[in-house]
């Protein structure tokens, strides 16, 4: 109590989904180059973060679902220590062909989400990922695994109503995921629904874009976060000047 707070946020690279701008580090990144060739809102981005250790059985179900859904996708998977990944169904990358891109390395997530080709984001509901997805105005497929992620899911799907739940029901106590496998059929249902063109989905897309715009207003000139950042800088300068005078 009695402490002053400054509500400061940092703008994301994905603030303009249509700008096509890429910084020097990621300009030649293969994912962004691949996305440039896809239609607007046609690609599903799948990523569960770098910390989660998802069992092979679950990864296999995700792969089968992505294959069956028929939609283009980018899947960023945590790199395994083993040379061969036994979970990937035989011939998967051949069957999905040019509509799929699997990466086992770091990816510029905020720039991917900000790309105009991205039409959905399957996520574990980690807070940073959610903020990036919402800021980009992208609707989400929520798949919480542990920590506060189930609460985050409810915020997205039931409060903001900008996503659909895949059906994850059991909380895990750590990064090693041991909850029951979510079957292929549930995943296919969520993907085909969100990436479809129903009136309900169109309303979700409209709301997601609207909330994305709202999320950026505080960091624009004159916004609350913009003003608080200026106030914080002035406070630091004042304290520094005071100490200099005392010395």
UniProtKB/TrEMBL annotation:
GO biological process: flavonoid biosynthetic process
Pfam families associated with the record: UDPGT
Gene3D superfamilies, per database record: Glycogen Phosphorylase B
Record-linked InterPro entries: UDP_glucos_trans (IPR002213), UDP_glycos_trans_CS (IPR035595)
PROSITE patterns per UniProt: UDPGT
CDD domains hit by this protein: GT1_Gtf-like
Single GO MF descriptor: UDP-glycosyltransferase activity
Keyword Glycosyltransferase tagged: yes
Keywords annotated in UniProt: Flavonoid biosynthesis, Glycosyltransferase, Transferase
Region ranges (Disordered): 1-24
Organism domain of life: Eukaryota
Family stated for the protein in its record: Belongs to the UDP-glycosyltransferase family.
Protein known as: UDP-glycosyltransferases domain-containing protein
